Amino acid sequence: MTTAYDEPAPATVPIDACILTTDRLVLRPLTLDEATAAHGPFHKAKSVVKYLRWEVRDHDGETDGRITKRLAGSTISRPGDGFVWAVEFKQADGSQGGEIGDVSLFAKSIRNAQFEIGWVFHPAIHGRGLATEATTAVIDLAFDQLGAHRVFAELDSRNEASARLCEILGMRQEALLKDREIVDGEWHDIAIYAVTASEWSERKARG
């Protein structure tokens, strides 16, 4: 039986940023103003960003455009575009509050329908399935609404927590790039994990 995922096709764009909801969470698209104001205090904690592949979010004096490039706009229409969602607890009245992290999704190739996902979460929420819940919502959007063929994540190979999350999500380790980047004067290996549309569809069917 052939599914829509089996047919090669470019990504479905343009698409506007939207709020995503799960059983326990609300994922709210960030604005650039919010992000440059360091919307979550934990984003500046060294323990939180130890393995992240961007600098600790001290935006004071930011002038080189790196923050603007990383933080998405409101539409994905071409390679390099993307969204960043603040992940917050869903309140009893349906509102949100209590930010626990963020998840990003960027278009790497529209023609080949390739998207990169990234995340950072407060260490206090580990072990409760919240990171899985949030990232699953974003991957669902990538495959169901953007027509992604492949979603991948690049992470510091020492980042065991993110590697475990990738495995929980059904992402395979595709590569280990030795001495890919210099961080604080040391070479770091980068692991690449990915899941294709057909693999994600099969995972969802298994429940």
For this entry, give a set of tags.
207 residues, alpha+beta, Aminopeptidase, two-stranded antiparallel ribbon, disordered N terminus
CATH architecture group name? 3-Layer(aba) Sandwich
CATH topology: Aminopeptidase
Radius of gyration, rounded? 17 Å
Share in β-strands: 25-35%
Number of strands: 10
Q: How many independent structural domains?
A: 1
The first-level CATH class name: Alpha Beta
Low-confidence stretches: 1-6, 54-70
Mean pLDDT: 83
Order of helices and strands: EEEHHHEEEEHEHEEH
Using the alpha-carbon principal axes, give the shape.
Answer: globular
Distance between the termini: 19 Å
> Main β-sheet: number of strands, strand sense, barrel status?
8 strands, mixed
Question: Helix share of residues?
Answer: 10-25%
CATH superfamily membership: Gcn5-related N-acetyltransferase (GNAT)
Strand order of the largest sheet: 2-3-5-6-7-8-10-9
Helices and strands: which structural class?
alpha+beta
Number of helices, counting only DSSP H or I runs of 4 residues or more: 6
